[in-house]
Predict the 3D structure of the following.
Amino acid sequence: MELNRRFSPATLLMLSINGMIGSAWLFAPLYAAKIAGPAAIIAWIIGGGATVLIALTFAELSVLFPVAGGTAQIPQISHGAFTSFVMSWIAWLSALTMAPIEVQAVLQYASTYFTSLTHSVNGVPVLTQMGLLWATILMFLLCVINIASFKGLVRFNFILFIFKVVVIILTVSMLLNASYHPTNFVGLSFSQNSWKAILAAVATGGVAFAFTGFKHGVELAGEAKNAAFAIPLAIVGSVVCCMILYIGLQLAFVAALEPSLLAHGWQNVSFIGDVGPFAGLAAALGLIWLLKLLYVDAAVSPLGAGLIYVTSTARILYAMSQIGFVPKFLMRLNKQKFPIVAIFVNFILGMLLFLPLSGWQAMVSFLVSGMVISYAMGPIALLCLRRELPNQKRLFRLPMANLLCLIAFYFCNLMSYWTGWETIYKLALAILIGFIFFALSCVQNQLKNHALGLKAMLWMIPYLGGLVLISYLGAFGGKNIIPFGWDFLVIGIFSIVILFLAVANRANVTAQQFAEVGNLGAQPSA
């Protein structure tokens, strides 16, 4: 059984936007402002611009290979099974975190009225036993809705899109109209410490996390109608649209704060309703109707994003099963051709993530650290396939590919580094566990029909090991042996070397292999 081509260009774009507009808009403006103050606005411009560049590389690749679970399939053809496994394992682990993040956000907002859902541990809202029970219920409902009806999913997606965008526009306009304090922007500076704070806000303040939804277009490419138009529209268009909305939200948040709240510095900003910053602002300003609307949206936006991530994360696991990295039963589809087993396996594993990753911000940092490493495959694979398939017709083609791919790869490595040592070492442990699964796949001969591509170890092992080492020695939670400023140069040189090695050690791709990967795509809908 194959997946169907079911998503129109407009549907795919709305799916991507809905995937982005989740808990990030409810929390990121607060966390980013605590880290960078009014300069958080710059963080959104940097994060959005970097993501657009990375998204453009995936737009070309996903049009060239419109397959389900492109995160696993594209590295498979460019470098072989080893690289495909590493990148899909990292991307799957990261995406697996998304639904729990969104459920955490819903319960964190709801705890303002239902205090039994969370309790504070070192200043971080953590779910209680009652909170974990409700988390289980909500996670299960996301799975059920996802597989119950495709038409229902599309209709629900459209309603979510309209509601979310309208609420954000209303929030921005009402806050700016009710409370505008230009003095809040006086502290905006571009000193070394300010730049360090801006970059930390990109990685750990929820900014990079806010743009992760563009990968929905990659994972669902195998189910897109009119792929040459739909995929670039969804991947790039969603980032641009959301960047405009997020910049407006950050501007409104900074401007609406009472100056007295900043007396002890941005890092100590606190007010009633702190677990839901925009709701807290609306309550303080007497905007009761907006407050009620925000609490409705605090459930709708995160759960809507979580619903979309249940859809796309299952496609990564489906593709991994298709290749042979994980058991074949995970490919099983229901009558409507949804990967039902993969969806419920993700549900069980997603619930386990509530234990080691307490609180919204801890989950976000882990997701970003892994997701941007999987992003790095975009510029690498694009350059490899430009060399291996130079005459292949490309319906979407990135201009100045050599330069833009190097810059995109550099940004991926920077954003991973900015998440800090505390997050990177946890990700490194998760990757090591993944290597055990890869070894088992080899021993059990599940990859007999695929080239292992072990020469990719010549760049993959130095790449992952180098990221860990630079983070350990760096200025973001590390030993500060590589001081801030010099780390940009170190990562720049590191990126050039690794990109050269990755392209040099690419797999040889034949026209037959290209056709075989293309045949993994979905079938047209009846």
